[in-house]
Amino acid sequence: MRGRRIAFDYGDARTGVALCDPDGILASPLCVLESTSKDFLQQIAQLLTEHEPIRIFVGMPVNMSGSSGSSTEKVESFVKQLREITALPIQCVDERLSTVSAQKKLKEAGVSSRQSKALIDAMAAAAILEQGLAREDLE
After folding, report:
1. Is residue 126 within 8 Å of residue 7, measured between CB atoms?
2. Distance CA 9, CA 138 (A)
């Protein structure tokens, strides 16, 4: 199905956001939001209005063993909040290696670890989006 998809890498302090092109081919980091901001959900609603995605992917923290971690409840609460502001389909994606993958890509691109702190969450969201898009291809 044609249309943009958006992904969120939710964290206590920051939430990375990524967006793909309308054909669902290229996932790109979009921005990083402050999760503790008073208008956090309003910022997300604005992104949804502006980019008009057809689906949302959210990274679900899972331990390497496949069990739920302590962060899982926080992400589930975030997903519940998303459901209150949009009727878009929301799909959770295993994010086990998304941050590691993002760090590796930034290092390969020659971005210093100090510079990468500002990008890492959005890059992790892009990795989550890539996984979500790959799952769509299998459906």
Report:
1. yes
2. 22
pLDDT at 14 over 80: yes
Q: What is the 3-state secondary structure (H, E, C) of 87-98?
A: CCCEEEEECCCH
Query: Is 65 a residue whose pLDDT tops 70?
Result: no
d(CA 139, CA 137): 6
Q: How far apart are CA 57 and CA 125, in angstroms?
A: 9
Q: Considering only CA atoms, which of 126, 139, 136 is closest in space to residue 95?
A: 126
CA distances from 20 to 81, 99, 104, 111 (A): 22, 18, 20, 22
The mean pLDDT of 58-81, rounded to a whole number, is 81
Asked whether the whole model's pTM tops 0.90, one would answer: no
H or E segment to which residue 30 belongs:
strand 27-34
Does residue 116 sit in helix, strand or coil?
helix
